[in-house]
Amino acid sequence: MKIDPFALELADPLATAAGTIDAREGFTVAYRHRGERGVGEATPLPGWTESIEACREALDRAAAVADEDASERDGSGHGPALLELDAAETPAARHGFATALLDADARADGVSLYQWFDADVGSVSSVPVNATIGDAPVAATVEAAEEAIESGFEALKCKVGARSVAADGRRLRAVREVVSEDVELRVDANAAYDRETAREAVEEFASAGVSYVEQPLAADDVAGHRELRGRGVDIALDESLSEYVPQTILDADAADVLILKPMVVGGPDNAHALAMRARDHGVEPVVTTTVDAVIARTAAVHVAAAIPAVRACGLATADRLAEDLAPDSCPVADGRIAVPQSSGLGVEVDYD
């Protein structure tokens, strides 16, 4: 296994639960499996996954127990390495190694990764994505929404919670006045509310035709989120998936939508399995990134492509990076992101 560190400057600083960051740091992972070399990416995000140090240590442990010669020869040597990587403890590290394995498997089978996940999904050339229109005042929010619609987006995501509920309601109604009823309007509160304020917000957002509010309450308030359901705006959980295993949320009937970040749940394979499990529970999956580099971003696109009739996903994040590991394999046009059709991931990174 070849593990190489990288650091990529962001186009703009990124606010996280652990503070503001100016660059995304992580590791590329290359692994020989079934006669192919697969590539993966492990890019921890403070507040969501393990630390960069813990990620490297986990990858080193996995490399020490992997039998890459056996894995390349007949696919039998990767098991101990994968078992070494606990998705609950070191999800980014597992994502890196699992993605490399998946890339190699799909390459060996001669199919694109999304078709490797689900052969019955057919040919998917692109999936819908949402545009993020931020947390600006009313006029700037409306302008951003109009620009997004002109660019072909049919789903808009607006940040809320930094202002009063009434002020955010005015912003959202102003957006709704200039966009078609067919445009899906989503809001992300990033756990800004207490229970009483969240109830007020849901009522206010319903008047603007909001589809769902993402993470209105603290990540650990499963019961509070359950109580918010059925009030005219769907409840989507994101940060809660860093606190609880998804099955806990599904069993608690705490969400209408699950926001699935493959880097946070331990890999594209885990994300796809969780998406299908959510569907079985009547919960819709939406796939997003943690502002990853091109390898992980492309893997997330494949996960979304393998979900039949997937809703618009949060995958249009390439422009958040000032630089990348390789050319973008999934360009965005007319509100949709392209899905690579070559075997494997469809990303070529020069490791030599």
TrEMBL record:
<dbReference type="InterPro" id="IPR013342">
    <property type="entry name" value="Mandelate_racemase_C"/>
</dbReference>
<dbReference type="InterPro" id="IPR010196">
    <property type="entry name" value="OSB_synthase_MenC1"/>
</dbReference>
<dbReference type="InterPro" id="IPR029065">
    <property type="entry name" value="Enolase_C-like"/>
</dbReference>
<comment type="pathway">
    <text>Quinol/quinone metabolism; 1,4-dihydroxy-2-naphthoate biosynthesis; 1,4-dihydroxy-2-naphthoate from chorismate: step 4/7.</text>
</comment>
<feature type="binding site">
    <location>
        <position position="188"/>
    </location>
    <ligand>
        <name>Mg(2+)</name>
    </ligand>
</feature>
<feature type="active site" description="Proton donor">
    <location>
        <position position="159"/>
    </location>
</feature>
<dbReference type="GO" id="GO:0000287">
    <property type="term" value="F:magnesium ion binding"/>
</dbReference>
<feature type="binding site">
    <location>
        <position position="214"/>
    </location>
    <ligand>
        <name>Mg(2+)</name>
    </ligand>
</feature>
<keyword id="KW-0479">Metal-binding</keyword>
<comment type="pathway">
    <text>Quinol/quinone metabolism; menaquinone biosynthesis.</text>
</comment>
<keyword id="KW-0456">Lyase</keyword>
<keyword id="KW-0460">Magnesium</keyword>
<dbReference type="GO" id="GO:0043748">
    <property type="term" value="F:O-succinylbenzoate synthase activity"/>
</dbReference>
<comment type="function">
    <text>Converts 2-succinyl-6-hydroxy-2,4-cyclohexadiene-1-carboxylate (SHCHC) to 2-succinylbenzoate (OSB).</text>
</comment>
<dbReference type="GO" id="GO:0009234">
    <property type="term" value="P:menaquinone biosynthetic process"/>
</dbReference>
<keyword id="KW-0474">Menaquinone biosynthesis</keyword>
<dbReference type="InterPro" id="IPR029017">
    <property type="entry name" value="Enolase-like_N"/>
</dbReference>
<dbReference type="InterPro" id="IPR018110">
    <property type="entry name" value="Mandel_Rmase/mucon_lact_enz_CS"/>
</dbReference>
<comment type="similarity">
    <text>Belongs to the mandelate racemase/muconate lactonizing enzyme family. MenC type 1 subfamily.</text>
</comment>
<feature type="binding site">
    <location>
        <position position="238"/>
    </location>
    <ligand>
        <name>Mg(2+)</name>
    </ligand>
</feature>
<dbReference type="Pfam" id="PF13378">
    <property type="entry name" value="MR_MLE_C"/>
</dbReference>
<dbReference type="GO" id="GO:0009063">
    <property type="term" value="P:amino acid catabolic process"/>
</dbReference>
<protein>
    <recommendedName>
        <fullName>o-succinylbenzoate synthase</fullName>
        <ecNumber>4.2.1.113</ecNumber>
    </recommendedName>
</protein>
<dbReference type="InterPro" id="IPR036849">
    <property type="entry name" value="Enolase-like_C_sf"/>
</dbReference>
<feature type="domain" description="Mandelate racemase/muconate lactonizing enzyme C-terminal">
    <location>
        <begin position="138"/>
        <end position="235"/>
    </location>
</feature>
<feature type="active site" description="Proton acceptor">
    <location>
        <position position="261"/>
    </location>
</feature>
